[in-house]
Write a structure and sequence with these properties.
heterodimer; A: about 110 residues; mainly beta; Immunoglobulin-like; 4-stranded antiparallel β-sheet; 11 strands; about 0% helix; B: about 110 residues; 6-stranded mixed β-sheet
Amino acid sequence: EPEVTQTPSHQVTQMGQEVILRCVPISNHLYFYWYRQILGQKVEFLVSFYNNEISEKSEIFDDQFSVERPDGSNFTLKIRSTKLEDSAMYFCASSEAGGYTFGSGTRLTVV
Amino acid sequence: QQQVKQSPQSLIVQKGGISIINCAYENTAFDYFPWYQQFPGKGPALLIAIRPDVSEKKEGRFTISFNKSAKQFSLHIMDSQPGDSATYFCAALPLSGTYKYIFGTGTRLKVLA
């Protein structure tokens, strides 16, 4: 069964550093998403991406966040200057239309 | 603001019992209602989903009941098993053309052996 692959599974970074979270969506999917989940809390939408551009973003997705699809297979989330409150699980998802497939997530710990 | 309210926050059920998780939404502009199952350290996985033109959908031990007039939908897990112990999220997909899900706050289910 096709799956969404995320790397790394766990990233520890110093506050103020830049991190890049990587995702390989399912190959024939057209819509890509990033969500985050702070420990024990609900899954929060960050951004959706379609046709090589952001289609929607949340209030959380401020200027320190950016997304890119650099080579037609990878989909990345960059956080430019990490804060302690960015510590969370970050999930990538992809879909053809509607039904999501989530990756296993990257646990980001900012110290 | 579109919201999906989920209850209970946690649930403990004996093996073989029925687990019931409820969700309610606040406006009618949703078109698709999936339930996701999440094990620790894993991403949410689609369990079962329903569209508002049907009142019930059953897949194995999992059933979604949908009440359009009350704007509520629920997940029933029959014959609950310890392997069902996970966090369950309901979600709703707006009609607006976006594919951004609105997630509930999650229910942590523990099934006792």
